[in-house]
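Chain A, query sequence.
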Amino acid sequence: DRRGNGVHNLKLKLYDADCLIDDKLGEGTTDMDGSFYITYNPDKAGLLDTPDLKIVPCTPTVLYKNSVLTIVYTPWPADSLSCSNVSSPDFNLGDVNIPLWEYADMTNQATPRAGAYAQHLKKGNTLEIVGSVLEVLGSVIGKNLPKPMTTRMEEDSPGSALCDAFHGEMMLNGFNPELLKVEEGTGRYYVSHSWKGYAVDGKHFAPDTEAYFVAKDGGLALDEIRIATRTGGFQAGPDAALSEPKIFKSTDHPDLWARAKLVFRSNYFFFGEVYTHLMETHLNVEQYLVPFYKHIRLNPIFALLSPHGVGTVQINQGSDKLLTSEEGILQTHSAAGPYVVNQMIHERFGGLDWYGWSPREPVCERHLFAKVQRLYWDVLEEYVGGFLKEHEAGVEAHWNEVCSFSEELVLN
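Chain A, predicted structure.
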């Protein structure tokens, strides 16, 4: 690879390069140190044709058809190595540089990201394809898509999507299901969102918020919101002191309470989008995909995990401009100043840890996310455990791939 390490267990195909159709001469697989040896018959190049050797690296892809798993090998989209008119019976190609799942330049990246050769599709193609399909079929499909849940709620019962009980539902089962803390003495649940240490753009309101919830009808209902602003106003620096929080309660005047809820919901969406959606989901997965596809090929766990990474990198690359660029939603529709989103991700990313992780316990009857999470974890544990038991011999035989994957993950 580009760091000089041998690329192990990589299938290579040897061709005689011709103008129209290349003649396949042989194939082989690299050893753990990246070395390989391919035996071929020069006569396969054709009558009076001295072979123009071309090495094509091929990577595995998992296909499912009628529940039957098949692994096929497709050419990697890197430049092939060619050597013209090779007549020697024993030819040494020397070191062959294959940019296989290299990392992107980390200068402006908050997390390890995949580089240019990370996928067979070019950057953004997935989003472009999706956009084209929706543009063509939108008039037909759009009419049949259900309305957003909050729209339906408001049509059926005006004000229901802004009520205190629905705010509790958001914390339990929304797009950003919060890890709820418990207030000492009262037993109320609460969540916090803080801009402390982050530069704001001086144009948008960026207070710290705490929202408190009480148990009600098997779920949670929003009870109190505390809002603290930086002393010095919108132009205050990232380490400015905070004012004493203003406390708003569900018993306050409806207009005042509604405005407080709007402030809280803005923070809930922004921090949920940055931390839960973008970082913990998309970027967290990508950091595993780069060393996984770079090192895992012959080990059976490739078939187990590979399908779950399809399209992830393209979607992440396509969303860079949509979400985190200077023109992105998170920069233009929030108080986040330049590079703040990357700063937030970088600081929080280093604290992610799977050690000792377990699904959260439900806090009430309507905590469906926690219940489904535990059910999914049990199903996953049973399925993965069964797969590893079935393929134990193959996993052990190619455990060196797992070791090199782990080393790569730690280094980056």
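The two ends are 15 Å apart (CA to CA). Strands lie at 11-16, 23-29, 53-65, 68-75, 81-83, 181-182, 189-193, 208-216, 219-228, 246-249.
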